[in-house]
Amino acid sequence: MSDATVTKSSASKFGSCKEQACTVATDGECYEGLSHLSACPNYIPVSDEDLGVDEDFEEADNEDAGESDATGSFPLSVDLYRGGELDYTTSLRITLSALTRVVVLAGPNDSGKTTLLASIFEHFFREPLAGYLFAGSESLPPFDERCHLSRTDSLRQTEDTERTKSFSEQTMLHLCVRDEALRERARHLLLSDIRGELFKAAITSKVEAQRIKILKRADHLSVLVDGAQLADLSNRNQAATAAKMTLRSFIEAEMIGTRTYVDVLFTKDDLIQITDRENKTTDFLKVTEDEIMRKHEHQVKRLRFHRIAVRVAEGVRSYGLPELFRSWVEDSAYRFQADEASPELPRIITSPREFDRFAINRLPKRFVEKER
Amino acid sequence: MTYRKQLMIGMHDTGKSTFIGALYHVVESGQVEDSLQLVDLGDNRAYLVEKRDEWLGCREIDRTKLGEEQVLTLKLRDTHTGQITELVLPDVSGETFRDQWEERRSTKVFDDLARQADAVLLFIHPDTVKEPVRINQNKEVAAILEEDDGNTAQPDGPSPEAQNIAQVKWHPKFAPTQVQLIEVLQFLLREPHVYSLSRIAVIVSAWDLVKDDYDSPTAWLSKRLPMLYQFLKANSDRISFKVFGVSAQGGQLGKDDAKMLGKIRQAERIEVVTDRDGEYSKHDITAPIKWLMTTAE
After folding, report:
1. What is the ipTM of this complex?
2. What's B153's DSSP letter?
3. Given an 8 Å threshold on Cβ–Cβ distance, is B160 in contact with A150?
4. Could you report the per-residue pLDDT of B57-80, keeping only the tens digit for each?
5. Distance CA A165, CA A195 (A)
6. Which of B277, B272, B276 is nearest to B36 (CA)?
7. CA A229 to CA A236: how far, in whole Å?
8. B139: closest CA of chain A, how far (Å)
9. For the whole model, what pTM was predicted?
């Protein structure tokens, strides 16, 4: 629970939106379909003035809290943390307090980014994943929402995954896991859920590539290639080229480099296999892998290729997810340095807070200021 | 005398009120030798008397509604050590926890109680667990049933594409029980740690309904709610937990009434088990409270 913010639970105004077509002011529903209104850049939250609440009135309310409680007519409530998607700022609380692996999933629409996220979450409903227990998440509602269209509650006939709604380049979901033997401390992961359009734009412009700032902090970049496209002769060349261009674009924009673990994921492999022999898709993928390897192997920390199928048709087993997930949790350039017993790198402080200034002044070997 | 405050957490219809009725009977009557015993009746006991009465009469126990929360205070003596503990046990409505998950808010009353508590009784009822059902999973079952019926004909009706249009938007209420419970616990464990909880007793209510299918209460939890079990295990160095199977009613109302009412000692309707046979007296419904009190010291 957050610091106790005492509010009247009867307040029901929704706020407003800069977007004229949005009906949030009347029904509380976001035009873009965002479940958490604060994530919308156009949303204007309701103010005390709108509510007709002035400070004196609020104070009087708080003083009367006990009485109101007793009658039950005006139950006082405490706001809890929202548990929504995280952005760069809201994720700082996690990244600054614990060693966190940042994983960016890149790929065009329908390549399977959100499905991969949902599958990770769903896996924990059955058992630990790759030897890791579910240890918590600050993003439970968005994780669960991403599973919805694959569940009977959605009243659909076939499984699907909702397209990513957020327009932010930094949208992330948080997950905390711990090894089954409980030998090590819990580990935090931030998994990106960024719209495919932004990656498409990143192929065409360096500026667009640099907009996805979270890449700078990424331990892992997974480039997803839609298996449905790869299985189709008329689309596979464009799909593979887009993946190559995505990678090259991020390297040239210096968003990733020799600290970044890169995985190229050929998703929906169950679909690839249907036409594999006829279309010689495996041979095509081999050539694609060789080309990418030759160009970029030495520009990143590690480059690997996986064929995965995480949400498969009835009666088929999914595969590829545990190996990938284990790598995300365990592999990091930062850990590699520690293993080699190299001197610990000083922590870079970017915040202007007095507390952090104090750390830089008193412990200059351990904390350094970010170059301006 | 020591002072303990324990929280009761659970969605609606998970057996919290039944537990209260049976608990009050056991601690007041002294029918279970090893159980905690009530030192004095105390004031403001109307609610406890009412719940016990309903329990003794095998009547459906009214569940606690939002705004009708009761803070129960019991002065209890440990029959082995003689130690006296004042136990404060808030009976909070299941809607409180539903609102925590769905509306992201809690009542001020609960928040104040939580800040003073050091342990949690977490109630789960096997019949009210909502599990996620995948569409493909459902289809597999339907196909098996069709095969069994010898019916392989395609169903009539609109095409899958057409049917997919009629979909329901996600709402927090659709989330599986284990996701909702994990979040409720996370609210209490989250930094900056204004709550000082150190123990959780997981109560699998109506244990008699499932005991034949599972080796132990922990086996039930790990199989029916694997994600919650993983969460508790992964955080066990911050907050230790123990799983109890508790049959507070002692049977099904309306079906087993005669058997239950016929017990000479009504406390013998109750069944409490842990993973270890004989760890506590079979009818001692105070066992989870004792575990929370002793280990929290």
Report:
1. 0.90
2. P
3. no
4. 999 887 777 777 788 899 999 988
5. 7
6. B272
7. 5
8. 8
9. 0.81
